[in-house]
Please model this.
Amino acid sequence: MVAVSYSDNDLWTKEQFEKLFWIEVAKRKAKIKEPDGVRQLNALVEQINVFFDVEGRELEEPVEDGAYAVLRAVEFDLSFAGRGAEPEQISLLEQARFRFESDVHNVESLLSYHRGFSLADFSLETDLRVLSEFWTFISSTRGRIHLGTETSQFSTHGEARYKAWSDDCDALVDTPVQTITTLSWPVSVPNIVHNHRFFCGTTDEYEVAVDTTTLESQVVLAFDLNQPLPPMHLIEGRLRSAYELARAHRNWEMLNSGQVPEDLLNPKEKKSSFDVHRLLSMKPDEHRLMKGPASPGPLIVGLHCWDLKMNEKLSDTAACRKAVEELFDAQDEESFESRVRRAKHALSKVVRPLIEDYDPDQLPWLNWSS
Model:
């Protein structure tokens, strides 16, 4: 078997898919084994959303992702100070936290298959049709040419180059400009939660003071003295991730404003521009679901077949036929029946065993040695 050559940018995208598919499998296992916990989590999210709709109706700017923020704040004892929100929004978030804190802990006690992820990420629903379109584009010749990722397999982050077309219509422009084209994920990728919890963040996100002096442009690491010290490799990984995430966020803001960050154009060290965005939490050889460049296709199709079968009480064949109709272009050269056969295989041989056999202990990051 010929080894696949991945660019660093590919590996970052591959990592995101790995985490996303694991949580999709975990959520479906929870629906089978812990249906009451899943129902209560969904109901709680709806209650929190209603709270923000009603109590926040007088705010000039609504609170964004309020339910997600409250779930994370309660589960991990986080502050809202780093959200960059207005005082009125912070106040409303604190009110919601106080009101729903016991409900969040109650729901958490009903769920076990969310271990390795946050309740907030577990509460989100992924639109598989949107994910399918996204995957098809970034792995296609057209998508790779548009993004400037021709030397990669399926990256969402292009290399610095001179762009000679308009994003609006793909028409050529008179004056090419040097730019980096990136594509945002249309679905939420979960954060991983390992067994060794400690705080690591930056002053870009949180307000931190030492002896009444507010810190700026700092990475902050904090341990609970009542708990064992986490493994050094995890500490180093979290420090690097926090640092690189903050740098990536700053560079992303520059990219959105039309500027190319100096880090990307003239790196001080011999390293790829991807190093600014490299937030890998797993080694590539720990990827179990993203086994190769073609892995997302069967997983997306199989998951969609599973959902149609479970939610609409369809047979395997009916679910697979409907999934193909919903996910693929009817004008595609590949025959409909051929796609249905592949969908059946994805459901029965790929997705069903993953869901039925799933246990959180399979997650690579829950098996990191201490």
